[in-house]
Amino acid sequence: MAASSSKKSGTHSAVLIPGDGIGPEVIGAAREVLDATGVKIQWVEGAAGESALKTHGTLLPQETLDAIVKYKVALKGPCTTPIGGGHKSINVSLRQGLNLYAAVRPVRSIDGIKTRYTDVEMVIIRENTEGLYSGIEHEVVPGVVEALKIVTEKACTRISEYAFQYARGHSRKKVTVFHKANIMKMADGLFLKCARNVAQKYPDVAFNEMIIDNGCMQIIKDPSRFDVLLLDNLYGDIISDLCAGLVGGLGVVPGANIGEAGAVFESVHGSAPDIAGKGLANPLAAIMSGVMMLNYFGETDAAQRIKNAYNSVLASSDPQIRTRDIGGEGGTKDFTRAIIERVKKK
Ligand code: NAI
Asked: What is the CA(241)–ligand 1 centre distance, in A?
């Protein structure tokens, strides 16, 4: 991970946020797998989401925010945001509140997960703090509402710098920015201008720009053309799910939200109310997010052991040790147990 990864040392601390829906199932699995490596992590539980609304009267309790500020790292499950009703998304609040300005989401074809594509190897870098997710909406007159897309030169330059630094730091060759500056000439125009300006400072990294509708079509036709994708908040959200579909779905795409003061690791997927509590959720995205967290801690050997373990499980022909979303017949616990067995063997 670019930016501020901390060095390997005795015991690490991380806030553990189970979240809602399938969150407790997949975060519980990720915790078990990380603990099986023997790396010492002091887990500090924090409440957030609908479950916190019941216990603390708010979606995002101050004590959870304080714990993340204190420990600087969190592993978070998805949180349900009630639709309507005046609740601001807890994810938006968290990312804005802690200034976790860069969402980093590696999307890769995974051996053992069959899809139409075999050569997806991209990283989505999404601006996390502004754009249409600024949450500023109001009713102008009855029947007419307005949502403001806030775009600042500071945030656009910061995320562009992050994308190019990431590309350089991870030996990646190209950054592609998606935009709609042909229509939103000022808002997306500013995002694009900042990306272009930053690109000039990185002559070793190729730069490409694409109008987002064309970009979607190009991704579906040939995802191997893409390397690092640079996107604003809304586009990054949508393109993340689109790209997840290329590699096996939301159950296999991890993520991290990175800021100057810390990092919150979380899968791209939501709380999946349709399968919550049934033991069917794929824990891999949460486990992979945990692997990103281990790398952030500098625990690269343990991270690699987990990767080897899940690759070995995915290479197995036994359908009982993978979840249904990726072609298996097993549940969350079967998949997790198989990974843990292999982590412990090494
Ligand atoms: P979702 O990501 O929860 O589910 C979309 C589809 O993918 C569903 O069919 C679900 O069963 C499937 N899916 C997701 N994760 C899976 C996994 N690990 N294993 C197997 N299948 C999986 O998106 P949806 O339904 O739009 O949102 C549900 C709730 O989650 C909403 O309240 C939304 O606001 C919230 N959400 C929270 C996020 C977060 O906390 N970071 C991110 C996205 C949505």
From this structure: 10
